[in-house]
Write a structure and sequence with these properties.
Order of helices and strands: HEHEHEEEEEEHHEEE
Radius of gyration: 17 Å
Low-confidence stretches: 198-215
Organism: Streptomyces venezuelae
Largest sheet: 7 strands, mixed
Number of domains: 1
Structural class: alpha/beta
CATH class: Alpha Beta
Protein name: Uridine kinase
Number of strands: 11
Mean pLDDT: 87
Helix content: 25-40%
Distance between the termini: 36 Å
CATH superfamily: P-loop containing nucleotide triphosphate hydrolases
C-alpha cells in the first residue's frame, strides 16, 4: 500500500502524526474533534483536512436533529460506523436544519483517514473507534458567546435549549478527560499539546494567519 504523505501545510506536523496512526475503524483512521458549541471545531477541522491532503470531514451537526441533539449514536453506528468497520461504503442522510428533515443520501467511502467533528465526537460510544481524540480548548462561556453572536438573536431560544442539553451531555458523558490532544487558538493560529488522556505524539505549536476561527 502506498504510504500516505500529508502535503506541506502549517498544520503538517500534526497531520503527519495522525497519518501514521494505526487504523481504528476497519481500514479507517477515525479522528475525533470535540469541544463546546462555538469553540472553533468546524474551522479547525477544515484546516486540518486540508493539511491532510483533503480528507473528508463528517460534521455531527449533519447527524443530529432538533429532536435528537445528542440522541444520534445509534443512527451513526448503523449508517456510518458499521459499514466503514468492514471496509464498505457508508450511506447516510444529512439533516436539514431549515427544512427539519433528512436530505438526500450521501456516500462515504472507507478512506484511510476521516475526521469527525462536533459536540460529542469524543463520547463513550465513539471513543473505541477513534484513532485519536482532539479537544478544542476554548472556555464554554466564550464558545457559547461566539455561537450566539454568529447565529443572531432569532436563534436565542434554540441556544437556550442547546446550552441545557450540552451541559447535561457533558455531565453524563465528558470528552475532555479522554482527549489525546488539546488544541488552543492563539492570535495567529493554533497550538496543541498532550491532553488529559495522554498521547504518544509530540506536543507542538503552529501559527497560520491572523484570523481566529468562529465556528
Amino acid at each position: 500500500m502506498e504510504e500516505f504523505r500529508p502535503p506541506s501545510h502549517p498544520l503538517r506536523r500534526l497531520a503527519q502524526e495522525l497519518a501514521v496512526l494505526p487504523p481504528s475503524l476497519g481500514p479507517v483512521r477515525l479522528i475525533g474533534i470535540d469541544g463546546h458549541a462555538g469553540s472553533g471545531k468546524s474551522t479547525f477541522a477544515e484546516r486540518l483536512a486540508e493539511a491532510l491532503g483533503g480528507v473528508p470531514v463528517l460534521h455531527l451537526d449533519d447527524v443530529a436533529t432538533h429532536e435528537e441533539l445528542f440522541g444520534w449514536t445509534e443512527r451513526l453506528r448503523r449508517q456510518v460506523l458499521e459499514p466503514l468497520s468492514t471496509g464498505r461504503a457508508a450511506h447516510w442522510a444529512p439533516y436539514d436544519w431549515v427544512e427539519r428533515r433528512f436530505g438526500p443520501a450521501r456516500v462515504l467511502e472507507p478512506v484511510p483517514l476521516l475526521l469527525v467533528e462536533g459536540v460529542g465526537a469524543g463520547r463513550r460510544a465513539l471513543r473505541p473507534h477513534l484513532a485519536r481524540l482532539l479537544w478544542m480548548e476554548t472556555p464554554r462561556t466564550l464558545s457559547w458567546g461566539r455561537g450566539r453572536n454568529r447565529d443572531g438573536r432569532e436563534l436565542d431560544l434554540f441556544w437556550d435549549g442547546w446550552e441545557r442539553a450540552e451541559l447535561a451531555h457533558f455531565a453524563d458523558d465528558p470528552s475532555r478527560p479522554f482527549a489525546d490532544t488539546l488544541v488552543r487558538q492563539c492570535g495567529t493560529g493554533y497550538e496543541w499539546t498532550s491532553g488529559a488522556g495522554g498521547t504518544t505524539g509530540t506536543p507542538g505549536s503552529v501559527t497560520e494567519g491572523d484570523e481566529l476561527p468562529q465556528a
